[in-house]
Amino acid sequence: MLISLVVPCYNEESSLPVLCGALSEVCGSIPAHQFEWIFVDDGSKDKTLDILRQIVSDHPEARYVSFSRNFGKEAAIFAGLTESRGDLVALMDADMQDPPSLLPEMIRILADENFDVVASRRVSRKGEPKIRSLFARAFYRLINRMSDVEIVDGARDFRLMRRQVVDAVLELSERQRFSKGIFGWVGFRTHWIEYQNVERVAGETKWSFWKLFKYAIEGIIAFTTVPLRLATITGFVVSGAAFLYMLYYLIKAIITQVWSIEPGYASTLTIMLFLGGMILIALGILGEYIARTYMEVKNRPLFVIRERGEKPVSSGTRRKSVRSASPDDRKKD
Ligand code: UDP
Ligand code: MG
Predict the structure, then answer these.
(1) Given this model, what pLDDT does residue 320 score?
(2) Measured from the CA of 94, which atom of ligand 1 is nearest?
(3) Which of 121-130, 166-175, 180-189, 216-225 is predicted with the least confidence, judged by mean pLDDT?
(4) Distance (Å, rounded) from C-alpha 30 to C-alpha 113?
């Protein structure tokens, strides 16, 4: 059986050699299967690409594609899955946070026909800033309440899938991808394995607070339209309250026969500001969905490949194995 290992890499010059060593060891320990390693260089600014060229020349099972700029991890995952040819495909980070040593067990579980996916879940968030863990938990609670698709707290992108699952994931060709949700959406029988959080072996996490916030919004909007409904419901509640308030004053005036306008500057202003705020929030929510529709309609490719590193041909040099997708090449195609 051919097993593809897909690794998105962005500025991973210091982690890649460690990962490669670990992969060699693990793959060597499972001689029953063939492996292909697919690295996706997501427009790294450090020496990642040089290291990948080296890896390809040293390891016949390795290949890479290199993007023309940083397109983000989701695009890198999509590219890697598109490139993969294996009957089983594993997705893993370059920084050893997804321990390659778990692979043999994952493969063993899939050998048993009962499952289509082996996914992994961190049971602790050790080594992560407290505030990040707090927001992450709140996010998962919120999204699971709003969306029909189950998005598992602590689920990593580290998973091994059958070909059929990969094809289903690739069928979802949306531009704004939220893999955690996409994996949940395609379904299939999933076996979860749990492990303690491992800190990255080298380099730094690419997630800033702002990036995580954007990712969370992306996740919510990609997998539920409940915020739109909330805006509508809030609109109904507020206007209902305003109507009751009006009735109250009307009835009071009829009973007391006092029709003079009361001095209510402060309350009027408060209500106006409140309503103004509500309208802006509702417009903002609407805008988020419309903006995404706009991006989807443009139908741009998810990534642009600048260079590929293929398996070296037996007599060839490394340079021969590297084919750059220059505009001329594409014309020939
Ligand atoms: N990554 C990527 N493109 C990006 C950001 C990250 O391909 O724009 C890769 C990164 O090289 C790593 C994986 O995605 O292999 C996870 O990134 P990171 O370790 O920063 O995330 P964390 O593990 O902290 O969630
Ligand atoms: Mg990591």
Answers:
(1) 38
(2) 15
(3) 121-130
(4) 19
Residue 37 bridge partners (DSSP): 5, 62
CATH class for the domain made up of 2-223+301-332: alpha beta
Q: What is the pLDDT of residues 38-86, one digit of tens each?
A: 999 999 999 999 999 999 988 888 999 999 999 989 999 999 999 999 9
Ligand found nearest the CA of 94: 1
- Percent of residues in the chain assigned helix, strand, coil, to nearest 5: 50, 15, 30
Q: Which residues pair with 63 in a beta bridge?
A: 38
Closest alpha carbon to 312 in 82, 59, 92, 31? 59
Q: Which of 39, 34, 36, 44 is nearest to 8 (CA)?
A: 39
- The ligand 1 site (C-beta within 6 Å) comprises 8-10, 12, 42, 70, 72-73, 76, 93-95, 97, 200, 205-207
Report the nearest-CA residue for atom 13 of ligand 1.
Answer: 93
Q: Is 103 left (phi over 0), alpha (psi -120 to 50) or beta?
A: alpha
Characterize the bridge pairing of strands 155-162 and 117-122: antiparallel
Half-sphere exposure of 269 (CA within 13 A, CB side): 4
DSSP 262: P
pTM: 0.76
Region 87-110: mean pLDDT is 90
Where in the chain are the domains?
Answer: 2-223+301-332, 226-297
Is the model more confident about 278 or about 317? 278
Residues bordering ligand 2, an ion, CB closer than 5 Å: 93, 95, 97, 200
- Distance between Cα 177 and ligand 2 center (Å): 19
Rg, C-alpha atoms of the chain: 26
Strand partners, 3: 35, 88
Over 60: is that where the pLDDT of 127 sits? Answer: yes
Whole-number mean pLDDT of the chain? 83
